[in-house]
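Something for you to look into today, if you have time. What I am after is a single protein written out in full by you. I want to see for myself how the chain folds. Could you add the entry underneath, on a fresh line?
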Amino acid sequence: MLAGQSLNPDHELALFIHDALRFVSAFITPISQRAPHIYLSALPFAPEESYVVRKFCPRFPNTLAITQGKPSQWPMVMFTAEHHREYVRHMVFSPDERTFASISPQTMYVCDSETGHCISGPFEVLGSANDACFSSDGRHILVKLYTYAIVLDIEMGEEQFRIEGHDFAFIHHDRRIASMHWIYEHGNSEDPDDENSTPTRILIQLWDASNGALISNSLLELSDVAVTRFSPDGHFLAVGRKSEHVIELWNLEDGKDPRQFTYPPGNLSSLRFSPTSDTLMAVLREKSCHIYLWRMDTQEMVSFSHDLNYNPHVIDSSWTNHLFIQQNYTVEIWDVSMTGSKMIWETKSPALSFVNPNP
């Protein structure tokens, strides 16, 4: 219906199609059982302001009528997907947001974002997955475990190969995967016995995303490393240094002349990029939590302080000035800009699941 048409999200046809998708998603179970449920169960119980209801209910005047309690709008919750038998540890969306992956301690499902229906899986996850990411075309997903990653083909529903490392990212402009090892002074890439030891080098490896073949190795001679993070598009590696209070941004293509972002003295606990890799965020923990945001194009910096629980989930929105902060079972939305910061919304999570909200 939309072929050849350029519609903005507020166009009447686009709004009607979106409403029709909500209608089908809400009543897919009775409709799939018997077609007459479209008229007996779906139309009478759909919200009064639904485009589908306003267009079709007048054509069927002899159906059921709800006299009390009928909602006026669709609820914010689009669906409830109950595929997992254990708590959900991580969730991640594909680049086009049409699908998402949910990971529990033993299994992973890939689901449709409009309906919540499983489109691939379940995949067995043997080990404690700590993160995941989609390829740029959305056909593969990389599940990150402690010392290796698994590449899964969503369409085939099977594992493709495994690669070693401690952090991973798809490189979006070509079919490669970047992995990273911390190398300590004694040459071991595993965690050292001395918890005060710091890595002296970082090994960057590039892999062929189609077959898992190793393409290249490169060593970054660094000392006093606190934290590291790949950008979502796989172009950069951010390295936080302890003593120099600086974050270095390395280009994975040439590995030369890293850009530097200076942060105040403090315990640098995490680095994170926005989903579109255009903003870098650093979280420092002292008596309170300090968050610093840098724009990648201008290196303009915004700071923000807040009393946060230990190891909170903090996400920077690439489309607004908003920070999404999850503390235990509460989610806060903050408006952070050059002129100031304020909390604009707070809510409690609807379920008692430990969810890592990767956008």
